Amino acid sequence: MFNISQVSKQTGLSSKTIRYYESIGLISTPPRAENGYRFFNQKIMDELKFVVKAKQAGFNLDESKQLLDLQRAEDRISGDVKALTLHKISEVEERIAQLNSMLTLLKGLADKCPGGESPDCSIIDSLADKCVRE
Fold first, then answer.
1. What is the rounded CA–CA span in Å between residue 134 and residue 130?
2. CB 26 within 8 A of CB 64
3. What residues of the chain score a pLDDT lower than 50?
4. Is there a smaller number of Cβ atoms within 10 Å at the N or the C end of the chain?
């Protein structure tokens, strides 16, 4: 059994985050001692580590809950897990495309600007022009 500070150290999550995950039902409810302190067993520790890894892979809390529920289910269908993952891949690819578009725009703006001491700024002018047209 682990106390919340031990769990925090082992998972890299703050105590506040761990309590939040408990409050939203993301992880199993840890048993409490007579003094009200939570004690975490290995099962809950594993759930938290699972959520941390899911978060690192880009899954949000709702998706992490879905994955954790699937992980807990003995009758899970791996196709459901794959579908969730493929959906996340699609979202990441879309976000990368958006970021690449932003990068191209910013580089174009920076290339147009001579910099220097003049108050004239082609970046400001371009952004103002784009805002007026939109």
1. 6
2. yes
3. 132-134
4. C
